[in-house]
């Protein structure tokens, strides 16, 4: 908005005026019939330059005024007198789009920061427990009578650490969920068995009976995300179930797709809390049993929605908890989205 930029903007007009003055002067000088007008040529040139300078000054002032009103409008000054309706429309549209992007990014950053804060505090718990167990192992290294119990405790705490680290890694990737999606055909039977094998100690140490139905169905989804979500749900079932409990994993065919159910006979969820399980930071009765960030189901639902899947929970306190993931038919994806 300085003089240099204004001159650059109207340089073609300046060149035109200079060209006209030069052309007129040459014609007057070379035309014998206009010899008497030569005495007035300086006066005419002077008047033209004065008029051009005047219009230059007025144009520059208008230029400054227009830019000032534009800046005022951009800075949300309601008292500004900006009259370019088309430019207003473009500015308003771009502002609205940018505000949505900024707000979305701000929420994502807040979610990640909140989770990482809770995660950092929670990771200290199993680390401290492992330190204590390590001291006990050194004290009884000559005896093997309690070796299995100690091995069990160490593996449980290490599994907790592994789960927390995995959660942190996945949440750090989900600033823009769709950017990391790789959709492919996945066999649910192979996927669930891979998860069970990875988490076998949870079932062995807690004497949990596992019942797996016929899961031989293929779905279209992102394998890493789906595997992570199902693993989190299974871990929750093992975490909040009583010893010698039962975890059932089965599928149901529906008209709109396939439902994968992970059901346990654990502590369940209170009736008044069932509608809040997917809220950010929700822990409910879980907090009485073990530490929890309250972010697992919240993130899982967001990811599943982005993948055009769905997740619901049915539960009765002290009886059961049934988590259902719905993988819609390909023809229904457009409706769901």
Question: Can you give keywords for this protein?
Answer:
alpha+beta; single chain
What does this structure look like?
It is built from 11 helices and 7 strands. The chain has helices spanning 3-9, 11-30, 38-74, 85-139, 147-173, 188-198, 200-205, 223-239, 286-289, 296-306, 333-336; strands spanning 183-187, 209-212, 218-222, 246-254, 257-264, 309-316, 320-328. A hairpin with a 3-residue loop joins strand 6 (309-316) and strand 7 (320-328). Helix 4 packs antiparallel against helix 5 (147-173) and helix 6 packs across helix 8 (223-239). It is found in: Cell membrane. It catalyses: ATP + protein L-histidine = ADP + protein N-phospho-L-histidine. It is a multi-pass membrane protein.
Briefly, what is this?
By secondary structure, the chain is an alpha+beta fold. 59% of the residues lie in helices and 14% in strands. It has 11 helices and 7 strands.
The count of helical stretches stands at 11
**H/E element order:** HHHHHEHHEEHEEHHEEH
- List low-pLDDT spans: none
Please tell me how large the radius of gyration is: 36 Å
Oligomer: single chain
- Please provide the count of β strands: 7
End-to-end span in angstroms? 47 Å
Overall 3D form: elongated
Q: Estimate the mean pLDDT confidence.
A: 79
Strands side by side in the biggest sheet: 2-4-5-7-6
| Proportion of strand residues | 5-15%
Helix content: 55-70%
Strand-helix topology:
Blueprint: H1 3-9, H2 11-30, H3 38-74, H4 85-139, H5 147-173, E1 183-187, H6 188-198, H7 200-205, E2 209-212, E3 218-222, H8 223-239, E4 246-254, E5 257-264, H9 286-289, H10 296-306, E6 309-316, E7 320-328, H11 333-336
Parallel strand pairs: 2-4
Antiparallel strand pairs: 1-3, 4-5, 5-7, 6-7
Helix pairs in contact: 2-3, 4-5, 6-8, 8-10
């Amino acid at each position: 908005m300085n003089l240099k930029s204004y001159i650059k903007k109207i340089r073609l007009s300046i060149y035109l005026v200079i060209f006209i003055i030069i052309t007129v002067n040459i014609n007057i000088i070379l035309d014998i019939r206009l010899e008497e007008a030569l005495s007035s040529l300086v006066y005419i040139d002077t008047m033209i330059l004065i008029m051009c300078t005047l219009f230059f000054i007025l144009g520059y002032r208008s230029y400054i005024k227009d830019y000032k009103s534009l800046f005022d409008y951009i800075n949300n000054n309601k008292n500004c007198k900006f009259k370019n309706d088309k430019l207003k429309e473009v500015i308003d549209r771009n502002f609205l789009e940018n505000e949505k992007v900024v707000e979305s990014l701000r929420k994502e950053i807040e979610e990640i920061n909140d989770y990482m804060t809770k995660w950092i505090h929670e990771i200290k718990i199993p680390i401290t427990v492992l330190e204590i167990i390590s001291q006990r192992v050194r004290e009884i290294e000559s005896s093997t009578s309690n070796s299995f119990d100690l091995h069990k405790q160490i593996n449980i705490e290490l599994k907790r650490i592994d789960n927390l680290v995995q959660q942190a890694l996945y949440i750090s990737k989900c600033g823009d969920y769709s950017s990391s999606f790789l959709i492919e055909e996945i066999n649910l039977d192979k996927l669930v068995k891979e998860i069970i094998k990875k988490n076998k100690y949870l079932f062995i140490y807690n004497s949990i009976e596992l019942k797996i139905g016929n899961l031989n169905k293929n779905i279209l989804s992102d394998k890493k995300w789906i595997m992570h979500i199902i693993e989190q749900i299974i871990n929750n079932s093992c975490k909040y179930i009583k010893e010698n409990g039962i975890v059932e994993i089965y599928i149901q065919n529906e008209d709109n797709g396939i439902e994968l159910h992970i059901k346990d006979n654990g502590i369940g969820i209170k009736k008044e809390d069932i509608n809040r399980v997917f809220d950010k930071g929700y822990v409910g009765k879980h907090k009485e049993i073990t530490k929890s960030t309250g972010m697992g189901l919240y993130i899982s639902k967001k990811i599943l929605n982005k993948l055009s899947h769905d997740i619901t929970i049915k539960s009765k306190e002290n009886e059961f908890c049934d988590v259902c993931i719905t993988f819609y038919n390909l023809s229904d994806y457009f409706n769901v989205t």
